Amino acid sequence: MRIWNKIAVGLCAAVIALSSTVLQADTPKSGGTLIMSLGATPRHLNPAVQSGITTGAPGAQLFATLLRFDDKWNPHPYLAKSWQVSDDSLTVTFNLVEGATFHDGTPITSKDVAFSIKTIKANHPFKTMFAAVNAVETPDANTAVFKLSKPHPALLLALSSQLGSIIPEHIYGDGQDPKKHPRNSENLVGSGPFKLVEFVRDQHVIMERNENFFIEGRPYLDKIVWRIIKDPSARSLGRENGEILMSAFESTPQDILHSKGVEHLTVTDQGYAAIGPINWVAFNTKREPTSDVRVRQAIAYAIDRNFLVDALTQGTARPAYTGIHPDSIFNESDVARYDLDIDKANAILDEAGYPRDSDGIRFPLTIDYGWPSAKPWAEYTKPQLKKIGIDVTVRTSAG
User: Fold this and answer.
1) Whose C-alpha in 38, 168, 314, 322 is 20 to 30 A from the C-alpha of 210?
2) Spatial CA neighbour of 256 closest among 169, 341, 171, 317
3) In-domain check, residue 163
């Protein structure tokens, strides 16, 4: 049996940036190159069909979305200059900015919006975020009308950066699999403020200013260079010596704590509350025994979130009790909590009819993890779940 993904705790992934008077200036200055780091090589650069920060972070600069959100959860115009929601919340109309073009000069129209949503619904790992969208009507080139099967409070958020990228139909509508499309990594035609110059796997992603971006005077930067540095220590050293100006989504506690002690670096855990970062247990509910809610409850009671926070994250994280980031406006704190209780976990499994064998084992489970940094989390479950008679095998996820 498998438990897919990671171990449940809310992480405070850090954004670490070089402090300077320029970064803190009231009036932004144009020009310059921002050198950032990525901790892994992106599979490709099209966030319309691929989740994850290594695709989403650079992809958000290459592809625009209908809306943007600020850190107070307020939506702002982007490709859509305005929008209206019907009284019954089943129709949402977006009015696109005039004159917006893709990087190759082709106009961005409502048909591209409709095509993008259709592509996301068919291919994105988070495709259910648009499950309520029955259709996107295009009465004219600058109007996209979303028809919903039911009210969808998170629709606007799903149409923001990293989630609702607007991709060109004239490129991706050629019948090829969009997840394997060659233009995802080379000769990429985007809609965002920066254009792809070069993507060299395991080395870097280089992008330059889109001179024809639809927001006048933007972007401020001439270029962004994403250096792919998989070693956290190397990223930390690069920030200290100024070779890297900014690192996003750092989650190694030692590096976060060390960087907080470096005078010329600024560390913040803000800016990623919309969809994470969270480490969690994702159960395979289609196979026994994890299809049994009582098994899932017992496992939840066997996990010591406070230990994970104190020992594995060294206090840089908070316990999570839902699958939604604690800072999200959609998080509900008044839920049943499964605090550590080994006796209760064993009692649940006994009552559910999972007896121990002569070795004290009830059944085996395989726990997969993807990122190398998640290995300690997965390995923590092996001795912990053995206390309730579950024999855990830890392995890394293929691909």
Assistant:
1) 38
2) 317
3) no
- In whole angstroms, what is the distance from residue 247 CA to residue 227 CA? 10
Residue closest to 292 by CA, chosen among 342, 393, 365: 365
Helix (H) or strand (E) holding 283: strand 278-283
Beta-ladder partners of 15? 268
pLDDT of residue 56: 92
Q: What is the pTM of this model?
A: 0.82
Contact 229, 38 (CB under 8 A): yes
Secondary structure class of 74 (helix, strand, coil): coil
The range of the structural domain enclosing residue 124 comes to 68-157
User: The CATH number of the domain where 227 resides is what?
Assistant: 3.40.190.10
Residues 6+ apart with CB under 8 A from 389: 346, 349, 354, 356, 360, 361, 362, 363
Do 229 and 93 lie in one domain? The reply is: no
Is there a single domain that holds both residue 184 and residue 319?
A: no
pLDDT tens sequence across 89-107: 999 999 999 999 999 999 9
Residues 222 and 78 in one domain: no
State the burial class of residue 173 (Cβ atoms within 10 Å of its Cβ: 0-12, 13-18, 19+): middle
Q: Which residue has the higher pLDDT, 240 or 8?
A: 240
